[in-house]
Amino acid sequence: MTLAPSIVERLARARGDLRMGVPVVLTDAGRAALVVAVESLEAPRLAELRAMGQPELAITVRRAETLKVRAYDGDLARIALPPDAGLDWLHAMADPVDDLRVPMKGPFQSLRDGPADLHRAAIALAKSAHLLPAALVLPVPDGLALAGRHGLTLIPLAEAAPELLRASPLHPVVSARLPMVASTAGRVHIFRPEDGGEEHYAIEIGRPDRSAPVLARLHSACFTGDVLGSLKCDCGPQLRAALAQMGAAGAGVLLYLNQEGRGIGLANKMRAYALQDQGFDTVQANHRLGFEDDERDFRLGAGILRQMGFSAVRLLTNNPRKLAMMESNGIHVAERVPLHVGQTAQNADYLATKAAKSGHLL
Ligand SMILES: Nc1nc2c(ncn2[C@@H]2O[C@H](COP(=O)(O)OP(=O)(O)OP(=O)(O)O)[C@@H](O)[C@H]2O)c(=O)[nH]1
Ligand SMILES: [Zn+2]
């Protein structure tokens, strides 16, 4: 143990830096770049980056499809920043809110030479900071010296890549009894990830037998549905119905996973809702923002169940991806228990889209 922060700690710092609009230095195989998230970039830093060289805009292939930008790097596109492009142009490239009003922002000069690893890592970091997935990347000759001179966080990709790929280990923090409407025998367990990310919760009802499949639900946080009673989705009724079913059975475990908006964060989910008001469905809206349909990592649910001593579940869900992810992460799904509640006039299209495009079972 040393006083210097580890790579996991520096990655947590980098996420905080990007949210604050502070550049981060990424290095890989002798190359280096200064990276800022477009969403949090401000004019003085943009001017400084321009004065230092030729910044490149990195966006996901999803966003590139909407903008009709050529993508030569598979999952992403790199665009040379046009000489006259200012902050407004960059924000419009990242944020689809005005796409319909101002559909074409080109012509674009997509870059195809050279590796895109630093750009890819920049987008991954922006996503994990719950920002729009767009970054400005400025190649620099000596990343180490630059980071040292300005006190910037330095991330060597060779060290960071395994950390970005693995599910962060979670540690139990505390648990306490919680009598609830659904059951007076409730207990809330808090789990904290090592990577400085969101905490997740397990709500245990009764004392489920660890040697038999437990009635379980993986619930993804939905502030609008769970708390506000939104009629646009079925999350609130699903949450309450799952707890009620566990209460009636006398045993069960509900994981409340803080993966708001299928992992894109509440601000981005609200951006998706604004696009839905323009006529796009839930999947199209995510794509226009530059995200995949579902950015959640279900491995952490399996990890929490294992830590709590469960190895098999009767899973309350209509989502086949959850079944597959449980099995591939060492939790046997003995049974799928369907959970159809909370249909409203306002969420009929949303539920139909989930069945048609996301494979949800009816
Ligand atoms: N990005 C985005 N997220 C949404 C939208 N509507 C709901 N969510 C989020 O979706 C998550 C719920 O996931 P769902 O796909 O509805 O259901 P599921 O949990 O995968 O599947 P079930 O187990 O069958 O309920 C929550 O995190 C919600 O915040 C939307 O329109 N856009
Ligand atoms: Zn919801």
From TrEMBL:
Coiled coil: none annotated. Residues 174-338 form the GTP cyclohydrolase II domain. The active site is at D294, R296. GO terms for molecular function: GTP binding; GTP cyclohydrolase II activity; zinc ion binding. Pfam families: GTP_cyclohydro2 (PF00925). NCBIfam families: PRK00393.1 (NF001591), ribA (TIGR00505). The keyword Magnesium does not apply. GTP binds at R217, L218, H219, S220, A221, Q238, E260, G261, R262, T282, T317, K322. Its cofactor is Zn(2+). This is GTP cyclohydrolase-2. Binds 1 zinc ion per subunit. CDD domains: GTP_cyclohydro2. It is an enzyme of class 3 (hydrolase). Catalyzes the conversion of GTP to 2,5-diamino-6-ribosylamino-4(3H)-pyrimidinone 5'-phosphate (DARP), formate and pyrophosphate. The gene is ribA. Belongs to the GTP cyclohydrolase II family. It comes from the Bacteria. Its EC number is 3.5.4.25. The lineage of its organism: Bacteria, Pseudomonadati, Pseudomonadota, Alphaproteobacteria, Rhodobacterales.
